[in-house]
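F.,

This is the one I mentioned.
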């Protein structure tokens, strides 16, 4: 529904997570006159973009009692999309400042530059003062018409507090999904999930199998080729007769999925090829995980579908007191975080109204029915892909914001095409300079920058 002119409510709101979603959620909530407390177990803002050389003691991250490391960032990681389309609408992700050598001005910068951008954003909008660092949320549950949060600080001291609303922004790159490989229990080699990959050095002179060929699988396999004897990618999406030597390295091969792992150390692919392997790296994604959330079974996570959620944000029976920012993927993530946050903040203030619980549930069931009719698995429920522009523009319309810029959508679409067709060069070779020009002219027109940085075309 369009924004209303009803009186504005000022609520006491908890935000879980101080990453890219939690920071912009905090800003938008405060802009709508809500009082905000952000909980984060790290000691600085940035969420998953805070790199640490440490990894978890369980290399597959399957032990529920393990020490959890939040970040999945590896040392060589660069962004998958051009920086212009990644930033928030009024704080563009441009090279800044021009002469700081610690910054990365490239169009596809490294993870340190993304963290620096988020730190700049938090500083610009004075968000750090709202964050309780070193504080983990261990329980969220209803308390009458309000919400109780139990948190635990770094000294182990727990504290219960009552909030009018809770916005969950805890990310979904911490709890790994591991491939099911026949015979793997008898296979004697090492295994790890990409969540625990940092640098290629441990794979020196090894034969490595990387399961997964999307962003992290493609990246990590190429990272490892510099030190490994051989790297073999197992891709579920490839036909069973696939066998291809990939460009960019002399020791990199593409296969279909693994048929079986044997106790003699060999790996058999579905194309019939057999290799002796030392290590398997699972680049197989993550599962949504909310161990702190108690809704008496109302919200479930089944095959990575979090539901029921109206437009991936509001659980119909618990809205607007509970909401989620940042669940969908294959989209303009920071733009989505911002629009979802504006929507949540406006609904909580009463400036925008939600449909009835029944209408929201009807819409949610229609989404699931469409997913099933199109033959998509449940785990693709939150995958926006080709529907992402319509989704973002729908939210923008709800809150009276302009639609997402066309150049931004085109950069996303072109970026994903290049990622799929030239995985070894897409970050350094592109054919859409006209979109860069359009983006920076847009920033100038809105007075978000005063000049086009010299690094862009220099």
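My design for it:
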């Amino acid at each position: 529904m369009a924004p209303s002119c009803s009186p504005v409510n000022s609520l006491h709101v908890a935000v879980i997570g101080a990453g890219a979603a939690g920071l912009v959620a905090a800003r938008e909530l405060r802009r709508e006159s809500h009082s905000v407390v952000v909980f984060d177990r790290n000691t600085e803002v940035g969420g998953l973009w805070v790199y640490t050389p440490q990894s978890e003691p369980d290399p597959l991250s399957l032990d529920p009692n393990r020490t959890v490391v939040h970040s999945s960032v590896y040392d060589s990681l660069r962004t998958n999309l051009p920086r212009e389309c990644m930033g928030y609408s009024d704080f563009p992700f441009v090279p800044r400042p021009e002469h700081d050598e610690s910054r990365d001005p490239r169009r596809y910068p490294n993870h340190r530059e993304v963290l620096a951008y988020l730190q700049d954003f938090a500083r610009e909008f004075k968000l750090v003062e709202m964050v309780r660092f070193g504080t983990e949320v261990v329980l969220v549950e209803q308390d009458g018409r309000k919400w109780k949060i139990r948190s635990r600080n770094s000294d182990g001291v727990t504290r219960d507090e009552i909030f009018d609303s809770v916005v969950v922004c805890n990310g979904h790159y911490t709890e790994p999904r591991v491939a099911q490989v026949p015979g793997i229990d008898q296979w004697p080699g090492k295994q790890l999930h990409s969540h625990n990959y940092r640098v290629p050095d441990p794979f020196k002179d090894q034969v490595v199998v990387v399961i997964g060929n999307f962003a992290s699988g493609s990246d990590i396999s190429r990272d490892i080729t510099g030190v490994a004897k051989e790297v073999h990618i197992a891709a579920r999406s490839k036909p069973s007769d696939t066998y291809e030597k990939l460009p960019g390295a002399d020791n990199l091969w593409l296969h279909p999925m693994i048929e079986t792992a044997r106790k003699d150390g060999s790996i058999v692919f579905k194309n019939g090829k057999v290799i002796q392997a030392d290590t398997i790296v699972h680049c197989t994604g993550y599962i949504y995980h909310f161990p702190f959330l108690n809704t008496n079974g109302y919200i479930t996570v089944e095959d990575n579908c979090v539901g029921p959620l109206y437009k991936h944000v509001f659980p119909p029976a618990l809205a607007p007191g509970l909401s989620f920012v940042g669940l969908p993927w294959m989209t303009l993530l920071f733009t989505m975080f911002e629009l979802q946050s504006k929507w949540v903040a406006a609904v909580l203030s009463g400036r925008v109204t939600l449909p009835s619980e029944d209408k929201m549930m009807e819409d949610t069931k229609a989404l699931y029915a469409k997913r099933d009719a199109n033959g998509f698995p449940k785990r693709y429920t939150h995958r926006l892909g080709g529907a992402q522009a319509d989704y973002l523009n729908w939210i923008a319309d709800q809150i009276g914001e302009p639609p997402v810029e066309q150049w931004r959508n085109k950069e996303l679409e072109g970026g994903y095409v290049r990622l799929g067709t030239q995985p070894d060069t897409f970050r350094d070779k592109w054919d859409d300079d006209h979109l860069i020009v359009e983006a920076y002219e847009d920033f100038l027109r809105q007075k978000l920058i005063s000049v086009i940085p010299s690094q862009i075309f220099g």
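The first helix runs from residue 20 to 31.

Talk soon.
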